[in-house]
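Minimal example, chain plus magnesium ion.
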Amino acid sequence: MDRPLMNRVLVPLALNGAAPVLGAQVHGLDGQTMGTTWQVRWSTNHAAVSAERVKAGVQEELDRVVEQMSAWLPGSDLDRFNRASAGTQHTVPEAMAEVLQAACWLADVSGGAFNPAAGALVNLWGFGPSPRYTDPGFAPPTDEAVRHALARVDWRALRWDAANSQAHQPGGVLLDFSAIAKGYAVDRVSQRLSAMGLPHTLVDVGGELRGHGLRPGGQPWWVDLESPPVAQGQRPLPTTRVALHGLSVATSGDYRRVFVRDGARWPHTIDSRTGRPLANGLASVSVLHAECLWADAWSTALTVLGREEGVALASAHGIAALFVQRERDGQLTETLTPAMQELAE
Ligand code: AMP
Ligand code: MG
């Protein structure tokens, strides 16, 4: 007989921040950004900070990220960089520079598994602004087209100069921050709420979350990790419940935004070392980190690396990650890095 499913509970190793507020209530706002939804919740017992002020603050933070880093908004700083002539030098605005710095660091550390310059390949496989894999008649690229795009995805060619916030456009290199910008936006919104005098908050942009402080009654913000849908004949996985107390979580998965034809599956994550969508059997990777930018970027990097290399790199950097693998027999199995296990004990 199968054992009953145990659920897993993850709690941070330290408690910190403001004490719970007596008589507090949870307030909330939501909206749309970056082709997805956002949500903020905050717990307070006074109306000193109005919902209108919170909304304006959140909107300003989200708008800044979009105006600088959207590949979909014509005229964003990223779009202008992508369209710039070969051999031009660009001063990158502050928020974008922060993200590019983190992205180039992780690209170096992961040997290009994470690649902020993968736009040419992302577009080719239909996951950029256009063409879309959902367009009628969309066809996967030829080998030759892949070879051409592979010549345009070297992040080192950006010659990123952090001290002067300068990036070089060698010609045809397309930045794509979709694997990191949502996490960064979560951090910015979270910090903005804190600066407004709201220490008890939960922020969500498209399923990437960051929580601080406590809910009314002294409980942390509990969230369940996203997990891949369980197909017929697959044993379900335990639910993993996390106390988002000074903690962020992000999940990358192969089950959302995927092109399926003739039995082949192309997820939206591209291995820019081969030029092709991933086919390593990883169904999802969730990462917990103090900062959502890092949770978001690492979850993508580890997804590309695959279970074996991913667990090794995450362990070497003390990253708390949970890998869900589709095994050859069709079952889903979980692997936790040591830092993740520590949170579960
Ligand atoms: P995420 O859902 O955070 O894993 O981000 C996936 C998105 O990042 C994709 O839709 C692409 O726009 C982009 N992307 C795809 N492959 C990579 C990669 N190897 N490194 C960085 N970004 C990528
Ligand atoms: Mg990501």
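The longest strand covers residues 25-33. The longest helix spans residues 292-316.
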